Amino acid sequence: MSELLVRLANAATDSYSGGDGVLTAEYLETCRELLPIIDKFGTGFTLIRSDISGNIDRLAAAYGHNNAKYRDLFAIISDEVQRGGQEGKQSETNALLWLKRASDFIVALLHRLHDDQQVSLSAAASDAYYKTLYNNHTWCTSAAFVVVLKLVPSRETFFQALGTPGEQMQQDLQKLLDAYEPLLARIQKFLSEHGLDFATKV
């Protein structure tokens, strides 16, 4: 069993509210549980990890201002939109947008590894990148990212770092995907419906 994958899957499951929202504290914990998995991709992913951590901290700071009011993640963003501050680079909206995009990339990578038990980690990372983050990156950022994707460890080394490879690992991955992908889709739906999926590239 992979304890890291199971913890992440459970955290994602806990993030669902009773309606269409997302529970803030639980979602931020989900993102934190993603970080140890990112560490297993090697030092090339340090910048990605740093970006995710920074965006978690920004949303956590907003949540800390009023835990009761901001129990639902989308309440933080809705308040910021009312203030007209959603388009700033340091906005909570931007933090959620890029946190979601980075998570999309990692989850797509894990999905590729789950579906094809022969694909290398480097190839899976490249496929996931072009399906997710690529469209939001400038040429310079993309060129640098492609280099980083070649620095990942082997598939075998990655899975050994996660736990005991085998059928149970596949089941743990499936549990994670079943919990996390719908959560990301819920966040994307909110961002799209409110015109917050900004096309600005970095």
From TrEMBL:
Family matches, as Pfam families: GLTP (PF08718)
Source species, domain of life: Eukaryota
Keywords of this entry: Transport
Occurrences of domain Glycolipid transfer protein (ranges): 22-163
Keyword Transport among UniProt keywords: yes
PANTHER family, per database record: GLYCOLIPID TRANSFER PROTEIN-RELATED (PTHR10219), PLECKSTRIN HOMOLOGY DOMAIN-CONTAINING FAMILY A MEMBER 8 (PTHR10219:SF25)
Protein name per UniProt: G3055 protein
Gene coding for it: g3055
